[in-house]
Amino acid sequence: MLATQRALTNRYRPLLEGLDLTYPQYLVMLVLWEHRALPIKTLGTLVQLDYGTPTPLLKRLQAPGLIRRERQASDERSVQITLTAQGAELRERARPIPAAAEKAVGLADWEVGAAKSLLERLTSDVTAPD
Q: d(Cα 10, Cα 13) in Å, to the nearest integer?
């Protein structure tokens, strides 16, 4: 599975170059395009990032102005990640990426759906408490 994950990441690399995003940054942006703003902890959970990964990744997205990181007034320990106008505009440039990635994978639509369903079940099963 690690080889498959690496190969998929490599397939995305040329698609993401024009957006100046890495694959993990793209995943974060996909979640933010859907939710617009989230606490960093929730974002990390949705993208399934390791505990130490979100902060440096988010700093790299903040530098070009794609996101804002703001401490919550109600809880200084909580940081809210908000999509900026520039980050929202990037979504339009990213719209062709899912179709291009599916084409690069070479699976039929039903195969992509079946693989996604199986991987979601596998993830759920292996992350469930014993």
A: 5
